[in-house]
Automatic annotation (TrEMBL):
Species per Swiss-Prot/TrEMBL record: Blautia intestinalis
Record protein name field: HPr family phosphocarrier protein
PROSITE patterns: PTS_HPR_DOM
HPr domain: residues covered: 1-78
Gene3D superfamilies: HPr-like (3.30.1340.10)
Amino acid sequence: MKEVKICLGTIERVKDFVNAVTRLDCDVDIVSGRYVIDAKSIMGIFSVDLSKAVDLRIHAEGTEAEKAMEVISPFIEK
């Protein structure tokens, strides 16, 4: 499992993010406080505070984890 911080401050970024992670074969979760949301659910993502960075958990190893990191790289907090 990998964990990174991502920023999804706008509706457009959320839409682009969901379109990107939906193509992954692994599970991806967003963690905001005590809430864990499926990152492939656009409605779930809108239920958390997106004004600040949230944690993203990628449940994959090896090449699948590398592929996931490539897909989400534009959203990683800098």
